[in-house]
Each structure stands twice: as C-alpha cells, then as structure tokens.
C-alpha cells in the first residue's frame, strides 16, 4: 500500500466516523510475513552453527544432560529478555531468535539425556515446553514455530494414546475460534495471529495437506489413520465436521442472516454434506475451513494456505492405502458433482435476483 | 503494509479505530466481504472445487485400471470427459469463470488420457516422455487460454520432465555432473519464463498482471541457482565452482535492480536476501570448516549469519518504507 492509498483509506474511514482522531497514527513499517519467514530461516541456520559451536567448544555440555538442560533454559531465558528489550536492534532481535532455537534444542536434549523418558513423556515435555515459550518470546516467527511444534508434538502424543483421530477436530475447532475471534482482544493480536498460523500449519500437516514426498511422507495422513482407535471411529471425524458447522453458523450470525433464510439453509445443508467428508477425506474439510476463514477475515495468507492444503491433500490422498482408488475416485467425483450442483443452484438464484432487480 | 487489512489492523491495535467500529471499518474498506462478495466467492469456490474434484476423481479412477470396463470403455470415458470439458470451454468462452475452469480441467484430463494410453498399451515410454507429451499437448491451450494457472501447470510440467529425465539418464556433460546440469536447466527454464512474463505483463491484458506467478517463478529459479551453487561449493575441487558463484551473484544483482527499481517486489527481494545468506554461509563453511571444524570458526559463522540476517532485515525494512512512500 502506498502512502497516498493509505491516506485515502484513512479519509474514507474518517468520513464514516469510524476513526478516533484527525490524522492517521505515524506510519509503522511492518515486516510482511514472507520477510519474517526468510529471516526466521536465517535464524535457524544461525542456531545450527551456535549449537555446533557449543558442541565443539564446550563438549561437556552434550556429555552431561543436566548441564545441557540448565544451559538450554538459561539461553532461552536470555533470548526472551533480549527480545523484550524496549527497542532491540535488528542484530539483537536476530541473535535472540537464533539463541532461542539453539536453547530449545539444548533443553530438550538435556531432558532426553538426563531422565531418558519414554515416547509419551518426551512428547509431553516437548508440548509443554514449546507451548510455554509462545508467551515470553515475543517474536512472530518464533511464536508460529513454537505453536506448530507444540501442536504437532501434542498430536503425536495423542497418537501414542490411541486418540489421534480427535486431533484434526480439536485443531480445526481451535483454528476456527482463533481466526474468527482474532480481533476480540485488541492487545492480544500479536500473540493470537502467530499462534493461529502455527495451529493452521499443524492442522494441515496432520491432515496430509502438507504432503511433501520424501520429506514428510504423508506423515500426518498415515498417523491419522494408523492410530485410529475403534472408540473414536465416529467421534474424531464428527468433531471435525462440527468444526465446519460451527464456522458456518458463526459466519451466518456475523452476516446477520437468520437461520430460516434460504441462504442460511443452503449454507447449512452444504456444510452438513461437506462435513460428511470428515470420515473419508478429512483434508478437504480443513482446506474448506481455511478458505472460509481467509475470505471472512480478508486474510490472503490463510486463503493461500487453504489452496495449498487442498492441493497437497489431493496428492497425498492418492497414496493413502486404506481405501481403494476406485472408492476414493467415487468419493471425489461424488463430492465434485455435489459442489457443481450447489454452484448451479447458487448461480441460478443470483441470476433470478438480478433479473428481479433489473 | 501490503494490504488494507494489515493497515486497518495496525490502526486498530494502535487505538486509532475503536473496537466497536472495527467490523464496519473492515466492511467499508472491502476487507470483510459483504453478501455480494460472499456470493461471488462461493460461486468460484463451488465451481473450481467441483471441477477439480471431478477431474481428480477421474484420474484416480483411470489409475485404478478397472479391467471390467474394457479398453474401449476406459478410453471412451476419458475422451468423453475431455470432449465435454472442451465443449464447455468453447461454449462459455475464455474470459468467464466457467470457461477457465473447463479449460484447466481439460488440460488435466489430457494428462490422464496420455497416462491411460501408456497404462493400456505398455508402450515402454519412460515417465519423462509421458509428461513431456502432456506438456506439448496442452501448449496450444496454454498459449490461447489467458490463464495464469495453466501457465503454472505448463512450467511445472517442464520442471518435472527435466527432473524425471535426469533420474533416468544420469550422466555428465562437459564439467557438469547430472545433478548440477539438471538444476541449471531448471534454473534456465524458470528464468526464461520469469523474463517472458515480466516483459509481457507490461504490454498484455489484466490476466498478465498477477504477481503470484512471477513470484513463484523467481522462487523456483532462486532455489535452483542457490542449491546448485551450494552443491558445487562443496563438490568441486577444481575451482569451477567460481563460475556458479558468479552466476549466482549475477542473478542476485539482477533481482535487486529489477525488483527494487523497476517492479518494487518485496517478496522477491526477501528471497534474494535469504539466498545470499545461504550462499555466503556455505562459502564461509568451505573456507573455515571443511578441513578442520573449530569452535572459533563455528561461532564466527553463527555471528556472520545473524549479522547478515539483521542487516538484510534492516535493508528490507528500508525498501518497504520506500515502497510505501
């Protein structure tokens, strides 16, 4: 947005009586998400070399788990303090990011080395530690990475407890609630949005929407179905379908569309039918949820993630062996025809409305 | 700020838009859709979603290789679907939503038809030949379709053909090994497409003004040249890696000039900064660590990476401020 466009937008809002002052606040140069991501990757790279420095220069840290644990905690604490300085320089900010990543690895290595926990306890540690770091370390990329790691570790933990099938539904509900209410707490936006992106990425991974051959190997998709316990055959997907329905109801309420109106009935029936896919093709539900959330908040990143998630899911679904290709083809063609029929109904209704107004 | 949404959110968080007025502000600025915008969005979602799910289902179906249907039945079905998609395109025209979805579906179905041919007659063709045939078959549609998504498919197929070819026929050409040659060819392909797109976007219609496609092409080209430069830094001991490094520097310089001065694209500049950090880090590692990894060298590189990222971030902020003015 250029300065002129910005001023024009301010005047437009001011004329409508929606602003609290005469002039717009001084321009704050925000860093776009892609720049944050690029610099965040550089932070990871820096963390790798910092870890290498500790391993070569202070080898005893890696030989004694307790020392690694304490050093990791101290480094993370230092990083949090650095990033909370009133006006940190760019170097300090970047150093804090790299130090925190290195500190996290040291701490988790220390836990593993000192108490030798089983899978479940280790995953619990990762979940709790990463979730706790989201609050003190106030750097958007860091918060997204920690939320993503915590949510993924929690999903793997639930998988070990034979409860993974409820994870997509829980993540879907969390994503819906965070993004739908992102403006409810004005001073919490800088915490909620990065967390929202982290949970969104975890939801895509767990549902096979972030399928990268040779890298993830459809990790989420495989886990989701391998660890599905009989008790949750219905409960897990039901939770996911409920996530979609909740979103549609919230959107209808926000748009002040009464539930008896044809538009509301159309939306609810559509959500109900689409929710049925949660049992056999859950990634399509998550992708649709992200597209709706992205559109409702004007958030192009979420829209992009929804499109990537749907495309990725259609690729990973092919390799999912629990259903034959024939059954999967039937599910996809059936869903596609349903969407095309819904498009036809909507298109005709819109044309009739336009004709009446003409 | 790259969008109205982010600007309004920043004003809201600074207290310049009271909480009770935020919803109205988002609606007035068009960030939050009104009923009409929702209808347009849902129409697009339903039509594109429906078409793509049907095509994906058809591809899965042909991959299942249902023998009960018979050869004639399978080919008849594939050709019927392709014909229907093309008829819909011809009837609806190239500029409408329906026509575009139909043409893209037809392009995907053409690939399914070729795969079915290879599956049924066991022609012995390699997989790269299948994808090359597919890319050639849809080229005329790409040229007339005025659809960026179809161009993405076309360029993606060419990249895939190069990858599959070198997987099957690894070999050397002059001083390039197969991995490096593959990356060079993919870089050349993405670079050519990027230059073509940027040149055409100044003279063509609205459909050429989308920014996501040149950004993806720059990303693809950047990944190839960065990766091959890093590979050669560590693989080559004859000094030829200097050629790749010079090419990387040329690429980065060109990006900085074009996307700072002419196009003003922060996305591509951010990618260029990250690529530069990766290559300089690799170069430092080659110089300081390859023979003997010492703590001092590792710390120096860590600090260099952090310094470069901080400097790059600061520079990108300055560019962002320039662009916003």
Give structural notes:
- The complex is a heterodimer of chains A (358) and B (325).
- Chain A is flat, with a radius of gyration of 23 Å.
- In chain A, 75% of the residues lie in helices and 0% in strands.
- Chain A has 15 helices and no strands.
- The mean pLDDT of chain B is 91.
- Chain B is flat, with a radius of gyration of 25 Å.
- Classes of the chains: A mainly alpha (358), B mainly alpha (325).
- Chains A and B meet through α1, α2, α5, α13 and α14 of A and α1, α2, α3, α11 and α12 of B.
The dominant shape of chain A is flat
Rg of chain B over CA atoms, rounded to whole Å, is: 25 Å
Q: Helices and strands of chain A, in N-to-C order? A: HHHHHHHHHHHHHHH
Principal-axes shape call of chain B: flat
Instruction: Extract low-pLDDT stretches of chain B.
Output: none
Quote the average pLDDT of chain B.
91
Quaternary organization = heterodimer
Low-confidence stretches of chain A: none
Strand content of chain A: under 5%
How would you sum up the major sheet of chain A?
none
In terms of structural class, how would the helical and strand content of chain A be classed?
mainly alpha
Major sheet size, sense and barrel closure of chain B: none
Q: Count the helices of chain A. How many?
A: 15
Number of helices of chain B: 12
- Cα end-to-end separation of chain A: 36 Å
SSE topology sketch:
The complex is a heterodimer of chains A (358) and B (325).
Chain A: H1 3-15, H2 33-57, H3 59-63, H4 65-83, H5 90-115, H6 119-133, H7 140-160, H8 167-180, H9 189-206, H10 219-226, H11 232-254, H12 262-275, H13 282-297, H14 300-318, H15 325-357
Helix pairs in contact in A: 2-5, 4-5, 5-6, 6-7, 7-9, 8-9, 8-11, 8-13, 11-12, 11-13, 13-14
Chain B: H1 4-13, H2 22-28, H3 35-64, H4 70-92, H5 97-121, H6 127-145, H7 148-168, H8 178-201, H9 212-235, H10 241-262, H11 266-288, H12 295-324
Helix pairs in contact in B: 3-5, 4-5, 5-6, 6-7, 7-8, 8-9, 9-10, 9-11, 10-11, 11-12
């Amino acid at each position: 947005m250029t300065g002129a466009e910005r001023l024009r937008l301010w005047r437009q809002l001011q004329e409508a009586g929606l602003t609290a002052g005469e002039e717009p606040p001084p321009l704050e140069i925000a860093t776009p998400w892609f720049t944050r991501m690029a610099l965040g990757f550089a932070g990871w790279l820096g963390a790798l070399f910092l870890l290498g420095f500790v391993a070569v220069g202070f080898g005893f840290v890696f030989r004694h788990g307790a020392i690694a644990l304490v050093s990791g905690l101290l480094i993370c604490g230092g990083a949090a303090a650095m990033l909370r300085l009133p006006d940190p320089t760019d170097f300090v900010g970047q150093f804090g990011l790299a130090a925190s990543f290195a500190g996290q690895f040291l701490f988790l290595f220390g836990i593993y080395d000192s108490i030798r926990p089983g899978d479940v306890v280790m995953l619990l540690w990762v979940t709790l530690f990463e979730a706790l770091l989201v609050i003190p370390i106030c750097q958007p990329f860091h918060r997204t990475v920690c939320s993503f790691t915590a949510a993924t570790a929690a999903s793997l933990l639930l998988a070990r407890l034979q409860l993974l099938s409820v994870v997509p539904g829980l993540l879907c509900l969390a994503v819906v609630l965070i993004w739908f209410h992102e403006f409810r707490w004005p001073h919490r936006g800088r915490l909620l949005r990065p967390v929202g992106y982290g949970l969104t990425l975890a939801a895509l991974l767990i549902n096979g929407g972030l399928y990268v051959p040779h890298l993830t190997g459809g990790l989420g998709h495989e886990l989701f179905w391998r660890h599905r316990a009989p008790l949750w055959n219905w409960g897990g997907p039901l939770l996911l379908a409920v996530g979609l329905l909740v979103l549609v109801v919230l959107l209808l309420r926000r748009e002040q569309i009464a539930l008896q109106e044809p538009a509301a009935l159309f939306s609810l029936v559509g959500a109900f039918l689409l929710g049925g896919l949660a049992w056999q093709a859950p990634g399509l539900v998550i992708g649709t949820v992200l597209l709706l959330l992205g559109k409702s908040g004007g958030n192009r990143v979420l829209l992009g993630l929804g499109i990537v998630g749907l495309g990725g899911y259609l690729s990973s679904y092919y390799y999912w062996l629990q259903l034959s290709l024939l059954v999967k083809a039937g599910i996809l063609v059936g869903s596609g025809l349903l969407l095309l029929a819904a498009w036809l109904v909507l298109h005709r209704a819109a044309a009739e409305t336009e004709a009446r107004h003409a | 700020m790259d969008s109205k949404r982010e600007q309004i959110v920043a004003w809201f968080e600074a207290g310049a838009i009271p909480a009770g007025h935020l919803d109205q502000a988002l609606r007035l600025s068009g960030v939050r859709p009104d009923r009409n915008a929702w209808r347009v969005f849902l129409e697009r979602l339903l039509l594109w979603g429906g078409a793509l799910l049907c095509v994906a289902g058809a591809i899965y179906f042909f991959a299942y290789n249902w023998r009960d249907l018979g050869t004639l039945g399978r080919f008849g079905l594939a050709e019927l679907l392709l014909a229907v998609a093309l008829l819909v395109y011809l009837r609806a025209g190239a500029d409408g939503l329906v026509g575009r979805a139909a043409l893209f579906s037809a392009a995907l179905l053409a690939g399914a038809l070729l795969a079915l041919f290879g599956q049924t007659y066991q022609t012995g063709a390699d997989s790269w030949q299948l994808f090359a045939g597919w890319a050639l078959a849809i080229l005329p549609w790409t040229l007339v379709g005025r659809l960026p998504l179809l161009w993405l498919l076309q360029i993606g197929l060419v990249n895939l053909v190069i990858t599959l070819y070198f997987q099957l026929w690894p070999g050397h050409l002059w001083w390039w090994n197969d991995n490096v040659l593959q990356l060079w060819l993919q870089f050349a392909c993405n670079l050519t497409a990027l230059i073509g797109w940027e040149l055409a976007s100044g003279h063509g219609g609205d459909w050429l003004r989308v920014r996501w496609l040149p950004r993806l092409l720059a990303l693809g080209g950047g990944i190839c040249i960065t990766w091959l430069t890093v590979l050669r830094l560590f693989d080559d001991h004859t000094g030829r890696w200097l050629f790749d490094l010079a090419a990387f520097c040329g690429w980065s310089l060109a990006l900085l000039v074009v996307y700072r001065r002419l196009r003003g694209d922060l996305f591509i500049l951010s990618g260029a900064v990250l690529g530069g950090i990766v290559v300089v880090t690799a170069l430092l590692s080659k110089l300081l660590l390859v023979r003997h990894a010492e703590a001092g060298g590792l710390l120096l590189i860590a600090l260099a990476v952090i310094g470069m990222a901080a400097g790059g971030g600061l520079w990108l902020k300055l560019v962002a401020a320039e662009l916003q003015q």
